[in-house]
Model the fold of this input.
Amino acid sequence: MKKINFFKSICAATLIFGLIACEDDDDQVITVAEEPEQEQPQEQPMSEETTSVVINEVRFQGEDTIELLNNGQASIDLSNYWLCLGPGQYVQVGGLTPVSGEVNLASGEYLVLNSNLPDNEGGLGLYSTNDFTNAEALVDFVQWGAAGSARENIAVAAEQWIAGEFVALVSNANNAIAYDGEGDAASDWAETTSLSFGEMNVITEAITSSFNITISNIINYLGVQIFNTPDGASEPGPVTSAGGSYWFDFKAVPGSKLSFATMQVVSNDWFYAPSGVGIDLFEEGTPVTGDITNQIYLWDSGTEEEDAATITSVPGGAEAGEPDDDDTVRIVTTEVSSMVKVSLAYDSTTRLFRLVITNLRGADDAEAPVILAPGISVIHAQENPLFTEGEVDRALGLAKIAVQGNPADLFGWFTETGSTGAPLRLSSSLSVFAPAVVYAFDTESDPVFTQGETAIEGSGIEESAEDGNNQVIFDYINSTLDLPVAKSNEAMPIGPGQSFTFTLENVPVGYKFGYNTMLVNTNDWFLAYNNAGYELFNEDGTAKSGIGATEKSYLYDAGTEIDQEVGFGADQPMRQAGPNSGASDENNSIRRVGEINDVQFGKGLIISPAGVVGYEDPRGGYNLVKVTITAN
Done:
């Protein structure tokens, strides 16, 4: 009898074999609560020649197929041999119709059979009788699934296999395994992509690839509005008089910046705006207030050549200048304190900022008249939300502000929605991401978590989703599931514009991608790919590269802690007294976050039925993350 090393698992027999279903009446499967009545084994003819039969090759997904090999010197009648899938699941070899070969198996010949097998984790035993509690009757056995620790003692291994205490001889990347023909170790079985039923086995090493993975925090545009009505006026219009102003209110939180653009009408294409960096609204958590004019510049949009003949004193005037020889956005002057005054105020009760832009000269100034036109303001997390100094205008609507004083096009671009009505570009919230993990798996569904079910005990979902601790989930995937996994190279949280990087190594063909990172300004929300996983390989086995894993990334509620307002909860990591300090959630199932009430920036209720988080997903969503995969 061929000896095979086994891997011990904590799975009980009911877990290992409970999902096995044998429905093909042709297989003559006996399903019993107790062991079937024992029969006396038929005596085999005495021979000086050795008698041996082994399980030689198994395909356990698709068309389930079992190959037996007579590797002894004498013929064997296998009619009264039995195949066992574990306690309660048996099929007599003589009752099966061979795919090829004969039940009376000659030396060196193969018998190929079809019988239902468990797809992902299971086992197969070959018995010389139907005395299934007798380890000596167990001629050969093999199991597949997730790996554990090796076993050397064949007798002990056989008895424990009979008791259903084992799972995992080899992992099933290719849905078929084959014996190399000699040896007694688990390593003598291997995954194979070259099926050879009825012939000598062809062992093909599992093809693996490595991937460089980047998970980027792309949170950026957090609020946008048009300002177009002068202080004291009842209708939109320009600010033409000295002392006149535009003002508007907005909400913001630490980490956010302000940018705006308003036309200097007495020009061809000039506008007032902060630098590309924007105005930091908080310094060490304290709101910035007072005169900020020194952060405001006069800019040339690079749209029209400056020509006094085509300058009007009316926003959107009919005259049009010649195209600018220098089409880049550039500074006209950094000294605008004699032209405009810009100031900030803050109300701690309402958490509202107020920006006031005051015209200091007016249209009647003989030396350098100033007229302000309606403009746009943006609250953002990254730099250069409206333009990049030294680069060509992005053709999204800034030129219309600079030339015509019309912010409608640019406002429309910022506020565009996807097919579900959720924003295409505006981010729902400002938050850092906690240190992440990436992993690969070959099961039909993600083994780390299941939408609609509670978090698996010991999986690390709770620790990751509540406290940003990625060690437990890493250990679970690495040790318990024995799957390819990597922690981010970066050990600290990442903010907008920053990224986690990973190298995921030795990923077999057929595996899929998953990841996990906490949205830190929440109680127990995490970002992940959907449960089906992202296919890392094309149909021809070549490894994929690109941003495809961005589109079906979603925001999940772990169901472990009650939710508080995003960015303000006392039990969220940056404000809580210690780990795991929030009250338990009454709904403990993992589910998609279908709506977010934006109290940070005042956008109100944002609804994304699917919980979409990928940037510019055509459905629209929360616009939080970008996932880039590069095959090595």
